[in-house]
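ugh ok fine here u go
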Amino acid sequence: MKKELFVKGCIIFMLFCVSVTGCGVSDARQEEPVVTEEVTEEVTEDTEEITEDISEESDTEASTIIEDSDQEEAVTQNSGELSDDLYSYQVLINGEIYQVPMDVETLVERGWELEESMDEELEAYTSYPLRTFYNGDCQIQVTIVNETDSPKSYRECRAVAISVSLFYNYKGGMTFILPKGIQSGVSTLEDMKAAYGEPTRLSESDQVVLVYYEIEYATKEITFTFNENKLKEIRIINKDF
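structure:
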Protein backbone atom coordinates (compact mmCIF):
# COMPACT_ATOMS: atom_id res chain seq x y z
CA MET A 1 0.00 0.00 0.00
CA LYS A 2 2.76 2.36 0.94
CA LYS A 3 4.61 1.41 -2.20
CA GLU A 4 1.58 2.24 -4.35
CA LEU A 5 1.16 5.55 -2.62
CA PHE A 6 4.84 6.34 -3.17
CA VAL A 7 4.59 5.51 -6.90
CA LYS A 8 1.46 7.62 -7.32
CA GLY A 9 3.17 10.47 -5.53
CA CYS A 10 6.17 10.26 -7.87
CA ILE A 11 3.93 10.25 -10.94
CA ILE A 12 1.97 13.30 -9.68
CA PHE A 13 5.26 15.16 -8.95
CA MET A 14 6.60 14.41 -12.47
CA LEU A 15 3.38 15.59 -14.09
CA PHE A 16 3.52 18.77 -12.03
CA CYS A 17 7.12 19.47 -13.14
CA VAL A 18 6.30 18.91 -16.79
CA SER A 19 3.30 21.17 -16.52
CA VAL A 20 5.32 23.97 -14.89
CA THR A 21 8.18 23.68 -17.41
CA GLY A 22 5.78 23.71 -20.35
CA CYS A 23 4.11 26.88 -19.12
CA GLY A 24 7.48 28.58 -18.69
CA VAL A 25 8.45 27.77 -22.25
CA SER A 26 5.09 28.85 -23.55
CA ASP A 27 5.26 32.21 -21.74
CA ALA A 28 8.76 32.88 -22.97
CA ARG A 29 7.72 32.18 -26.56
CA GLN A 30 4.78 34.56 -26.27
CA GLU A 31 6.98 37.42 -25.04
CA GLU A 32 9.75 37.13 -27.66
CA PRO A 33 7.72 38.22 -30.76
CA VAL A 34 6.52 41.36 -28.95
CA VAL A 35 10.08 42.50 -28.22
CA THR A 36 11.21 41.71 -31.77
CA GLU A 37 8.28 43.65 -33.22
CA GLU A 38 9.09 46.81 -31.23
CA VAL A 39 12.78 46.73 -32.15
CA THR A 40 11.95 46.10 -35.80
CA GLU A 41 9.59 49.08 -35.88
CA GLU A 42 12.21 51.38 -34.33
CA VAL A 43 14.92 50.25 -36.73
CA THR A 44 12.56 50.65 -39.71
CA GLU A 45 11.60 54.20 -38.65
CA ASP A 46 15.27 55.19 -38.16
CA THR A 47 16.18 53.71 -41.55
CA GLU A 48 13.38 55.63 -43.26
CA GLU A 49 14.50 58.92 -41.65
CA ILE A 50 18.13 58.37 -42.69
CA THR A 51 17.03 57.47 -46.22
CA GLU A 52 14.93 60.65 -46.44
CA ASP A 53 17.84 62.80 -45.21
CA ILE A 54 20.22 61.28 -47.73
CA SER A 55 17.64 61.75 -50.50
CA GLU A 56 17.13 65.42 -49.58
CA GLU A 57 20.89 66.05 -49.47
CA SER A 58 21.33 64.35 -52.84
CA ASP A 59 18.51 66.46 -54.36
CA THR A 60 20.07 69.67 -52.97
CA GLU A 61 23.53 68.76 -54.27
CA ALA A 62 22.11 67.84 -57.67
CA SER A 63 20.19 71.13 -57.82
CA THR A 64 23.32 73.10 -56.95
CA ILE A 65 25.35 71.28 -59.59
CA ILE A 66 22.68 72.00 -62.21
CA GLU A 67 22.53 75.70 -61.28
CA ASP A 68 26.34 76.04 -61.39
CA SER A 69 26.39 74.20 -64.71
CA ASP A 70 23.74 76.55 -66.15
CA GLN A 71 25.69 79.62 -65.04
CA GLU A 72 28.95 78.30 -66.48
CA GLU A 73 27.20 77.44 -69.75
CA ALA A 74 25.69 80.94 -69.99
CA VAL A 75 29.07 82.60 -69.45
CA THR A 76 30.71 80.26 -71.97
CA GLN A 77 28.06 80.98 -74.59
CA ASN A 78 28.33 84.74 -74.14
CA SER A 79 32.13 84.74 -74.12
CA GLY A 80 32.21 82.38 -77.09
CA GLU A 81 30.45 84.95 -79.27
CA LEU A 82 33.35 87.36 -78.89
CA SER A 83 36.13 87.49 -81.44
CA ASP A 84 39.55 86.29 -80.26
CA ASP A 85 41.06 89.39 -81.85
CA LEU A 86 41.57 92.35 -79.52
CA TYR A 87 41.43 94.65 -82.54
CA SER A 88 37.91 93.53 -83.39
CA TYR A 89 37.04 96.36 -80.96
CA GLN A 90 34.45 94.21 -79.27
CA VAL A 91 33.45 94.12 -75.62
CA LEU A 92 30.82 92.10 -73.76
CA ILE A 93 28.96 94.40 -71.35
CA ASN A 94 26.50 92.80 -68.93
CA GLY A 95 26.05 89.85 -71.29
CA GLU A 96 25.65 91.80 -74.57
CA ILE A 97 28.28 92.35 -77.26
CA TYR A 98 29.10 95.89 -78.39
CA GLN A 99 31.39 96.62 -81.31
CA VAL A 100 32.97 100.05 -81.80
CA PRO A 101 31.99 101.98 -83.85
CA MET A 102 28.24 101.46 -83.62
CA ASP A 103 25.06 103.45 -84.13
CA VAL A 104 23.95 105.44 -81.10
CA GLU A 105 20.52 103.98 -81.79
CA THR A 106 21.94 100.56 -80.86
CA LEU A 107 22.69 101.83 -77.36
CA VAL A 108 19.19 103.29 -77.08
CA GLU A 109 17.57 100.01 -78.17
CA ARG A 110 19.49 98.19 -75.41
CA GLY A 111 18.18 100.49 -72.71
CA TRP A 112 20.95 103.10 -72.49
CA GLU A 113 19.79 106.69 -72.05
CA LEU A 114 21.84 109.83 -72.64
CA GLU A 115 21.81 112.43 -69.88
CA GLU A 116 20.99 115.09 -72.53
CA SER A 117 18.07 115.02 -74.92
CA MET A 118 18.57 112.63 -77.83
CA ASP A 119 16.94 115.21 -80.11
CA GLU A 120 19.76 117.72 -79.76
CA GLU A 121 21.88 118.08 -82.88
CA LEU A 122 25.55 117.72 -83.63
CA GLU A 123 27.12 119.74 -86.42
CA ALA A 124 28.58 118.10 -89.50
CA TYR A 125 31.91 116.31 -89.03
CA THR A 126 32.13 117.06 -85.33
CA SER A 127 32.42 114.93 -82.22
CA TYR A 128 30.95 115.12 -78.73
CA PRO A 129 33.32 113.23 -76.40
CA LEU A 130 32.64 111.41 -73.16
CA ARG A 131 28.87 111.63 -72.99
CA THR A 132 27.41 109.57 -70.13
CA PHE A 133 24.72 106.98 -70.87
CA TYR A 134 22.73 105.34 -68.05
CA ASN A 135 21.02 101.98 -67.81
CA GLY A 136 19.58 101.47 -64.33
CA ASP A 137 22.49 101.78 -61.87
CA CYS A 138 25.07 101.23 -64.62
CA GLN A 139 26.77 103.88 -66.69
CA ILE A 140 29.16 104.08 -69.63
CA GLN A 141 30.86 106.98 -71.38
CA VAL A 142 30.59 107.35 -75.13
CA THR A 143 32.10 109.64 -77.77
CA ILE A 144 29.48 110.59 -80.34
CA VAL A 145 30.47 111.65 -83.88
CA ASN A 146 28.50 113.08 -86.76
CA GLU A 147 30.31 111.68 -89.79
CA THR A 148 27.99 113.34 -92.34
CA ASP A 149 28.04 116.75 -94.02
CA SER A 150 24.85 117.98 -92.33
CA PRO A 151 23.62 118.37 -88.73
CA LYS A 152 22.25 115.20 -87.16
CA SER A 153 20.48 114.43 -83.87
CA TYR A 154 22.48 112.46 -81.33
CA ARG A 155 20.29 109.47 -82.05
CA GLU A 156 21.38 109.52 -85.72
CA CYS A 157 25.08 109.75 -84.96
CA ARG A 158 27.75 107.12 -84.38
CA ALA A 159 29.44 105.98 -81.16
CA VAL A 160 33.16 105.79 -82.00
CA ALA A 161 34.53 105.32 -78.47
CA ILE A 162 33.19 103.61 -75.39
CA SER A 163 34.52 103.54 -71.84
CA VAL A 164 33.37 101.08 -69.17
CA SER A 165 34.61 101.58 -65.63
CA LEU A 166 34.11 99.86 -62.31
CA PHE A 167 35.21 103.10 -60.62
CA TYR A 168 31.94 104.78 -61.64
CA ASN A 169 29.85 101.66 -61.27
CA TYR A 170 30.60 101.23 -57.59
CA LYS A 171 27.06 100.01 -56.80
CA GLY A 172 27.87 96.76 -58.57
CA GLY A 173 26.06 94.91 -61.31
CA MET A 174 28.49 95.96 -64.06
CA THR A 175 30.72 93.43 -65.77
CA PHE A 176 32.70 93.54 -68.99
CA ILE A 177 34.68 90.90 -70.87
CA LEU A 178 37.22 91.37 -73.65
CA PRO A 179 38.35 88.88 -76.31
CA LYS A 180 40.13 85.79 -74.92
CA GLY A 181 38.22 86.05 -71.64
CA ILE A 182 39.92 89.07 -70.06
CA GLN A 183 37.35 90.12 -67.44
CA SER A 184 36.67 93.12 -65.22
CA GLY A 185 37.55 92.74 -61.55
CA VAL A 186 39.18 89.36 -62.22
CA SER A 187 41.97 89.54 -64.80
CA THR A 188 45.46 90.79 -63.89
CA LEU A 189 48.14 92.62 -65.85
CA GLU A 190 49.88 89.28 -66.38
CA ASP A 191 46.64 87.72 -67.73
CA MET A 192 46.27 90.56 -70.23
CA LYS A 193 49.87 90.23 -71.47
CA ALA A 194 49.48 86.48 -71.81
CA ALA A 195 46.36 87.03 -73.93
CA TYR A 196 47.50 89.94 -76.14
CA GLY A 197 51.28 90.11 -75.88
CA GLU A 198 53.33 93.13 -74.82
CA PRO A 199 51.43 96.45 -75.00
CA THR A 200 52.38 99.44 -77.12
CA ARG A 201 53.06 101.48 -73.99
CA LEU A 202 52.47 101.39 -70.26
CA SER A 203 52.41 103.97 -67.47
CA GLU A 204 52.23 103.53 -63.70
CA SER A 205 51.11 105.80 -60.88
CA ASP A 206 50.84 104.51 -57.31
CA GLN A 207 48.64 101.40 -57.60
CA VAL A 208 47.12 102.39 -60.96
CA VAL A 209 48.56 101.06 -64.24
CA LEU A 210 47.46 102.30 -67.68
CA VAL A 211 48.16 99.96 -70.58
CA TYR A 212 47.76 100.89 -74.25
CA TYR A 213 47.38 98.69 -77.32
CA GLU A 214 47.49 100.97 -80.36
CA ILE A 215 47.22 100.76 -84.09
CA GLU A 216 46.94 104.53 -84.51
CA TYR A 217 47.46 106.90 -81.61
CA ALA A 218 44.18 108.31 -80.21
CA THR A 219 42.08 106.99 -83.09
CA LYS A 220 42.40 103.19 -83.03
CA GLU A 221 43.44 101.98 -79.59
CA ILE A 222 42.33 100.02 -76.53
CA THR A 223 43.29 101.27 -73.07
CA PHE A 224 43.25 99.09 -69.96
CA THR A 225 43.26 100.48 -66.43
CA PHE A 226 44.41 98.25 -63.56
CA ASN A 227 44.08 99.08 -59.88
CA GLU A 228 45.78 96.80 -57.34
CA ASN A 229 46.49 94.51 -60.31
CA LYS A 230 42.82 93.96 -61.20
CA LEU A 231 41.18 95.18 -64.41
CA LYS A 232 38.91 98.10 -63.51
CA GLU A 233 38.35 100.03 -66.73
CA ILE A 234 38.48 99.64 -70.50
CA ARG A 235 38.33 102.29 -73.19
CA ILE A 236 37.91 101.33 -76.82
CA ILE A 237 38.43 103.91 -79.60
CA ASN A 238 37.88 103.19 -83.29
CA LYS A 239 37.33 106.28 -85.39
CA ASP A 240 38.56 107.75 -88.68
CA PHE A 241 39.17 111.33 -87.48
